[in-house]
Amino acid sequence: MVSQGQSAKCTTNHPVHVPHEWYEPGDLVIGAMASHIYYIVRKVSFKKHPSQDFIDAPLVLTKFYQQILALVFAVDEINENPRMLPNVSLGFHIYDSYYDSKMTYRNTLDLLFKSHHFVPNYRCGIQKNVIGVIGGLSSDTSWCMANVLGPFKIPQISYGSFEPAINYGTKFPSFYRMVPNEDLQYQGIIQLLLHFRWKWVGLITPANEAGERFLQNIEPMLFKNGICSAFTERLKFNMNYNSNKLEMLEDSRILLPAFKTSRANAVLVYGESRFSIWLSAALITMELSQLLFPQKKSREGKVWITTTQIDFILYSLQKKINVNIRMFHGAISFAIHSKEIQNFKDFLRSIRPQWTDTDRFIQDFWEDAFSCSLSNSTVSPTMCTGEEMLESLPAPYFEMSMTGPSYNIYNAVYALAHALNSMHLAGAIRNRRDAKGKLFSRYADPWQLHSFLQRISFNNIAGDEITLNEYGELAAGFDITNLVTFPNNSYVRVKVGSLDPHAPAGKELTINEDRIKWHKRFTKKKQGDNKEKRDVTHVEISRIDTRFIFDTPSTKAFGLEAYMETCVSCPADQYPNNSQDLCIPKIPNFLAFDETLAIVSASFVLLFSLITIMVLSIFIKHRNTAIVKANNRSLTYGLLISLLLCFLSSLLFIGKPNMVTCLLRQTAFGIVFSVALSSILAKTILVVLAFMATKPGSNMRKWVGKELAYSIVFSCSIVQVGICVLWLATSPPFPDVDMHSMPEEIIFLCNEGSVSMFYCVLGYMGFLATISFTVAFLARKLPDTFNEAKFITFSMLVFCSVWLSFIPTYLSTRGKYMVAVEIFSILASGAGLLACIFTPKCYIIVVRPDLNNREQLTQRKV
After folding, report:
1. What would the DSSP string read from start to end of 159-199?
2. How many domains would you assign to the chain?
3. pTM higher than 0.85, yes or no?
4. Range of the domain at 323
């Protein structure tokens, strides 16, 4: 046998094709196991060979494609960051578990050994240096992966498994979890029940090992806190095809007696995402039974409580079966904590089917999500254009906001990267050479990563601290969300609380009851109101989600037409009135010329421009006087002209944005301000050099002159010009509208295109201002003959103060007030430069001409 580290010739007579994978090479490769495709097994009829009729078309869980993209986004971000893993490239190889243990084992082996063919314990073809593996979403998938990865001591970071860490840690010390300890969730469930005084609770779990473990943990805690278990149901999850029909309701009627007649206030559901599919189908059967047998007693007023492991993926089943998610309206769910990651939404907006040839997931996702075909297949008679936008999909089908599992994957990639970075600094990543001794990649042993992962601690870009505890679990809490459903079977999750492990004992849970939208029957019972509340859904739709047009779904198969409501949301450019029965057009929001704020701003622009022209005229008229000559006439004229252009550039921010003004706004003010700051820097440097040149035997005399001043202004300004040209060439600003930030207004704005380039322009201005201030401050006590440094010092203090306060104020405002903040900053900083530098000179020239001579200047001291 050839050992793992050796090469061998590997062949197989029947290669197994894996249709869903994504491989990008790198020096070090991160493996991953996604849960995106679910194959539903057909019932074997024994009329033909099973291989001819084994599986149906895959069920694509479209919302889980974001988890794959989160990993790709994180790897790209790290590769573009020069401070992370310098001279080392990260690659990735993503497979799908297909929610099947056999395929999980097979694809995990594929990650380690080769692509498309595998022979255990051999490395064949191109050697991938798999440094760590991320996955899986469920405990079953994580367990199968750990069985393969554990013996090789390859780090595995699960992003959704809540299998007890001690269990994994004993058998697989290389296993880590980017999720908190499940015991915290048990405490949160108890505190939630006590908070709402729900003393009766029903328990529904899958009939498997995970369900039994959940019951063993939660039932003693319920008893200890005086909460009674009204019923406990262990349900088998069976779903398969038979005669082209999806069978999943065979045993669902066992729920009917317990659920419909129980006195439980809340029903606690434990399980994973697929379990919610089965449960919803069981509840549909219950609704039908209630219609057929109305004599059965039904207790209303129950609320669903779901654990973190459950994600409502029912929307993906609409093409297979009719599933009504509205029965879960008002559910309270424990959810994985997540935050928005900067630039992630922009990354999602850039996704197109043709964006890469290596993504084998995207075709099935795209065709299922947009109900079209990318090839001449029979998926849909409608051909995809390839220009469809993920942003246009309903949130339950694909979310633009980063979900909890995606957030965990993002943090898992960065955890591996930070650990690798520490290895790199410690010299544990070494060069790998070919047979001729030529360097062709970097190499690291995965087992060495554990000592760095075990003490990993960093803050991600969203500000969350990512730390693993002694058991390899994420030291964090949970979010509490409320499920709000709509008539077209879509939904949104609204955050209504949190579960903080660092809070005092018994105070871990916080709940904002005002944000919760209860099921109307549950609300009716709580408020003691016997009247039908048929308008509840109208209020929820208009208040919470106005992105989609909702039509009443067909419910004839279930006989539930009488219980449905027809609700239509307002278009994006309209908003509902207070009565929720009329859509009103939103008001345009931009800084128009006829508004008071614009008139005041334009008046100040005119005033400061006239003052600047007046000062320039004074200096030109008295150009041969001592004080004008002493302060370099050419630089003074250039500074005044650039300040004049600064004031005038603020007029570009007034009026409705168009392509020309959007292109010129930031670039024009950035360039003219850079010229002004470059002139000030040149004046300051010349002051220092002039003083040094007066010392006997100094060689500085040859440096003092107009050539040096012009060189400083040109070289400093051309850098800003280059930044602006690069900005306009790569991702230029453009006119845009924002319909969601303000509920009753449409914001017309200039989209910066690249926010990074905008802050590069501001950052470079700040750099020039800092250099000018530093030099001027050091030279402020030189004799007055050559010195205007003390005035420049004050002007730079004003300038820096204005722009340091600008950034937080700019980010905290919206619409025309954001534009007004930038206009104010331009005018205030320009006026500060004009006043601090030129007021003392104009005073001497105009008011005290007797001091404007060489003898008076040489006698004065600072």
Report:
1. SS--S-HHHHHHH-TTEEESS--HHHHHHHHHHHHHHTT--
2. 3
3. no
4. 182-336+477-574
